[in-house]
């Protein structure tokens, strides 16, 4: 069986379970379950702390895992990213009291508090900055107020908690993170698990495409077909079928979901009618 690590809690857990369910995999029914077997798909899921997943995968005990890019890099584990998943996006940045620093060059000689010591220490060394790093678990916003550090480095999503603490971000982002699929570095592609790993990745890629595109159907006059096809080129090309009424055709194509309304407006302007969009639940490209 393919052995897969899945986040057991936090911002990664729910979206990861939803994506796996959409990909056709059985998921746990109760949060207390730490392991389940999906016999139909020959997969065994292990629900682990997101911060520990890279360690388990790097050991070779588990074949692949879902975790955050920030957690993978911070762990310094021998595992690598093989597929970005597009959820749990965040930016990792420095923050301090207003006016205390403008860029990373202002951190020389200062102390930085963070829960991601590995990421921050490497970033400072790579940037040639001599600064101290203090590791704290949990919220680090109070580190400056309590005098533990002059600067913090943390995940920033909306920035509300930083502003509430009287802090502001500065400099360029340290890194941008999102949920990813990881695998042990140097994993043998001839391994017996490889076909199932590739099948797993294809399923998740299918979910990503299904979330990104919608299917669009419409009717248009033959003389407007080229203009319509230019608006809806599809992936390879659209499907075009003649209608019973002479001079009309039906067109079907995949279009980006975020552009669907604009495309519908443009199609209507050139004379297309009966324009419909349909959600895509699964696909293979």
From TrEMBL:
The keyword Glycosyltransferase belongs to this UniProt entry's keyword annotation: yes
Cofactor(s) required for function per UniProt: Mg(2+)
Annotated localization: Cytoplasm
Keywords for the protein's UniProt record, in alphabetical order: Amino-acid biosynthesis, ATP-binding, Cytoplasm, Glycosyltransferase, Histidine biosynthesis, Magnesium, Metal-binding, Nucleotide-binding, Transferase
MF terms (GO), sorted A to Z: ATP binding; ATP phosphoribosyltransferase activity; magnesium ion binding
Means of activity regulation: Feedback inhibited by histidine.
UniProt domain ATP phosphoribosyltransferase catalytic: residue ranges: 49-206
SUPFAM superfamilies from the UniProt entry: GlnB-like, Periplasmic binding protein-like II
Catalyses which reaction(s): 1-(5-phospho-beta-D-ribosyl)-ATP + diphosphate = 5-phospho-alpha-D-ribose 1-diphosphate + ATP
GO biological process: L-histidine biosynthetic process
CDD domains the record matches: PBP2_HisGL1
Chain ranges of the Histidine biosynthesis HisG C-terminal domain: 210-281
Enzyme Commission number: 2.4.2.17
One Gene Ontology cellular component: cytoplasm
Superkingdom of the source species: Bacteria
Physiological role: Catalyzes the condensation of ATP and 5-phosphoribose 1-diphosphate to form N'-(5'-phosphoribosyl)-ATP (PR-ATP). Has a crucial role in the pathway because the rate of histidine biosynthesis seems to be controlled primarily by regulation of HisG enzymatic activity.
Protein name: ATP phosphoribosyltransferase
Organism the protein comes from: Streptomyces doudnae
Gene expressing this chain: hisG
């Amino acid at each position: 069986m393919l052995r897969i690590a899945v986040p057991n809690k936090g911002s990664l857990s729910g979206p990861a379970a939803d994506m796996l369910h959409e990909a056709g995999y059985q998921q746990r029914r109760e949060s207390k379950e730490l392991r389940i077997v999906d016999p139909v798909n020959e997969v065994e899921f292990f629900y682990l702390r997101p911060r520990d997943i890279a360690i388990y995968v790097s050991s070779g005990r588990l074949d692949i895992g879902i975790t955050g890019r920030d957690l993978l890099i911070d762990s310094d584990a021998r595992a690598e990213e093989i597929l970005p998943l597009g959820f749990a996006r965040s930016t990792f940045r420095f923050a301090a009291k207003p006016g205390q620093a403008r860029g990373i060059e202002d951190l020389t000689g200062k102390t930085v508090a963070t829960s991601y010591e590995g990421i921050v220490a490497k970033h400072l060394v790579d940037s040639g900055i001599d600064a101290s790093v203090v590791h704290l678990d949990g919220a680090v916003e109070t580190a400056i107020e309590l005098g533990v550090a002059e600067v913090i480095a943390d995940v920033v999503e909306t920035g509300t908690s930083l502003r509430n603490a009287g802090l502001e971000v500065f400099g360029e982002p340290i890194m941008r993170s999102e949920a990813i699929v990881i695998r042990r570095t140097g994993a043998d592609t001839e391994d017996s698990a490889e076909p199932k790993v590739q099948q797993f990745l294809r399923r998740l890629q299918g979910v990503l495409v299904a979330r990104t595109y919608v299917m669009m159907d419409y009717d248009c006059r033959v003389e407007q077909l080229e203009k319509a096809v230019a608006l809806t080129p599809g992936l390879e090309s659209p499907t075009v079928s003649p209608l019973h009424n002479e001079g009309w055709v039906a067109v079907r194509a995949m279009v980006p979901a975020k552009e669907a309304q604009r495309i519908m407006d443009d199609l209507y302007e050139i004379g297309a009618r009966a324009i419909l969009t349909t959600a895509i639940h699964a696909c293979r490209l």
